[in-house]
Specification:
With 222 residues, chain A is an alpha/beta fold. The first copy, chain A, has eight helices and eight strands. Chain A has an eight-stranded parallel sheet with strand order 1-4-3-5-2-6-7-8, sandwiched between helices. In chain A, helix 7 links the parallel strand 7 and strand 8. In chain A, helix 2 packs across helix 8. Chain A is globular, with a radius of gyration of 16 Å. Chains A and B meet through helix 5 of A and helix 5 of B.
């Protein structure tokens, strides 16, 4: 297995994270790098969705991935099998990434000619929502087994996401999950959110998601 | 539907949480109250497991429940249907509870003759693991759809739990979840952890769990 680089990121020294996030977005714009911040609960399917996304887009876009985790490098090793550039970020126990930590990650990744950089954030619906990473767009994955009521319980996460992927729709028959009600709850929190039901395992719905992503990347790089 | 009391808990003023947690445990011991801290990812099945646990034990033990959530009171309303004492704690955006916040919750619950108090912590595998709530025992629920690799990624949570309930075992055939491997990973983090596979929806395995709980409560109250 390919050796994955591990970067231990340091805690930020900046008090004003929003300012740092804006500065990072400006730098990304200048360098033509689109940064996607991907968030979810533990086990919602971030890595599997990423694998499928990379397979679909790696001939179209130059992709780089940052895998943030408290510990372990299992996800980065999985992603490295796709052949794209990947780096493992260890947060040293921190439950989220802020803009300065994301900047350290991007420097470690050495974006160079990368067009689409993806940050797989720590699996957590609370803290990552509170810190602007400097990403151009925020995406989150809600998986069917978690239940359709999650937008009621984790309001901030749903309100800051540009796109919500509803994953594991293949197991819908085995869970009490009402897709229409879930969409309604999401739009209560965020009327502008794009909602795309997918199954990363079977590939269902992935075209709608990658189309959305490709369009956002080209708009940003225009 | 019964009106549920909502308590807005304030941020703690104490720097030394471990000390506060020890003091709380001493008070609980003196008053014969067993406090269980129940943690998990969002959507792993804390509330459903609690419902089943209460149904099984409410004629044996006097139970009180604290439902911690960032927002919303859906869980507390659900629990209130069982007829046990319940209070909703709003953390005001906080991603975890510490000992002082838990003490506020217990005072709000008015433990009085309660023998078993249960804190349903915020759905999060990271931050709640870092703060001793003062509970007598820590329990966590890992659900099958989340994957068997979670002990690798959230080491602290698994290392501090006395008991791990592996929930939603009814859907095991639809997920790539290896129970033996999962147990091995949990014991890597915590050799002493009791592991109980359950399905809160169908009731499978619930007897083993409530037996464990009843024994712990009587030991504590001896």
């Amino acid at each position: 297995m390919k050796q994955v680089r591990i970067l231990e990121i340091k805690q930020s020294v900046f008090a004003d994270n929003d300012r740092q996030a804006e500065l990072l977005r400006q730098d990304l714009k200048e360098n033509g790098v689109f940064l996607l911040n991907l968030m979810s609960s533990p086990g919602a399917g971030k890595t599997t969705t990423l694998m499928r996304t990379i397979e679909a887009l790696k001939d179209t876009l130059k992709i780089g991935v940052m895998e943030a985790d408290i510990d372990s490098d299992v996800d980065a090793e999985t992603i490295s099998q796709t052949g794209v550039k990947v780096i493992q970020l260890h947060t040293g126990g921190m439950c989220h990434l802020d803009a300065e930590m994301t900047r350290q990650g991007l420097e470690g990744l050495e974006t160079g000619d990368i067009e689409l950089a993806i940050l797989e954030n720590v699996g957590n619906l609370v803290c990552p929502a509170e810190f602007d990473t400097g990403a151009v767009k925020n995406a989150m994955i809600l998986s069917v087994p978690e239940g359709d009521d999650k937008p009621l319980k984790y309001p901030l996460m749903f309100s800051i996401c540009d796109v919500v992927l509803i994953n594991k729709i293949d197991v819908m028959p085995y869970f009490d999950f009402d897709l229409a009600r879930c969409k309604e709850y999401i739009h209560m929190r965020n009327p502008d959110a794009t909602i795309i039901p997918i199954c990363a395992k079977t590939g269902e719905g992935m075209k709608a998601w990658t189309d959305w992503l490709v369009q956002e990347v080209s708009q940003w790089r225009m």
